[in-house]
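In practice, a research group might receive sequence data for several interacting partners and want a quick structural hypothesis before committing to experiments. The following worked case mirrors that situation: the sequences arrive first, and a predicted assembly follows.
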Amino acid sequence: MACAARIGQAQSVPRAVAVIALLAAVPLAADADGLVASGVLTAVLAALVVAEQLRGAS
Amino acid sequence: MNDEREAEPQTACHPRPLAYARGVAAPSSPIVPELPIIRARGEGEQRATFFELFFDLVYVFAVTQLSHHLLAEISWSGTAETAFMLVALYWAWNYTTWMTNWFDPDTAPVRLVLVFVMAASLLMAVAIPEGFGEHALLFACAYSGLQIGRNAFVVVVTPRGLFNENFRQILAWSVLSAPLWVAGGLVDTEALRWVLWLGALGLDLAAPLVTYWLPGVGATAMSQWQIEGAHFGERFQLFVIIVLGESIVLAGATASDTGLSLEVVAALLLAFLSSTALWWLYFGQVAGRVLERMRAATAEERGQIGRDIYTYLHLPIVAGIVLVAVGDELVIAHPTDALHDSGALVAFGAPALFLAG
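A structural hypothesis for the assembly, expressed as tokens:
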């Protein structure tokens, strides 16, 4: 996001949402099993990849 | 090299118009002196050499050491120490990348300088586990030694001119921070070491921001930081690959050591998919767009982009991936245990840091 800002590129909304979601999930993840937390994290990152691919293609 | 410098003291720098400045690789630079050890700039975009790839191998080990240091003590103290040493290592690598953007690693003198930097970086890496303990002096001396040695080499081998003056100022800043580094390595009190080393690293980090300003001399003009964008971008992309590679090595080694139960294999595959997603998010989006911007930039802008985006803003990207590797290791080693506060902060804060970069 900082790199995009520096080159004057529009911010990726999905990326910003992902950052907020990940930080907000920290307290919840503390009590979760590692495997469950890892699954959620991977799902968030995979969804972000898809969202940015679609954004790039449009 | 010195003979050439003496033979052509005034003509070694060739002022030329900035017609090449936008969009294409520079055929020749008005600032960078023409020497046999300088990269030829008239042959299209430069690529990283095999020796630079070999050079990076020391940093593969260094990044692994950093991950293990944090894993040994996941606490605020351990995180601060790891972050500090990561920045120092990254800074050593980053400055060398600026240097090899101008100097040809396929020439013997430059190669020997890189061997020296590699050896010093290796000493930094082996010192990491006790970097804030009994090996603090080794870490500090190796760092300061490589910074001063590399910059001094450039000052000695280049003829008088703007490029040489730039490096004199860069060298002066390296020399300025060195006593703080060494003093921090010598003291016994941890708090005092932190004060001295934060001052030293603060000086090193601030130097490019203030364009190596010195009293009575002034700052160096950004227009003089003429880098070859394709090579520069490729080198930082390779550093991201190094760190991603380390995350896969750590995940695989941990799974192998832990025992391949169903939960461990599932955690390993999730870690691998996360690393793949990070690769995609960086190389699919960030890397290409920055490089496009770099190619379209004027000579002056290229130096600014190099400093801002690669030198500074790649730090959170790199740090984020290192922390992701640590989070993966925690999960793979204990897949059915709760992450607890520190583990959750690492596992979820790390990718957030990466994305923020």
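Before designing any experiment, note the following. Chain A has a mean pLDDT of 92. Chain A touches chain B through 37 residues (CB under 8 Å).
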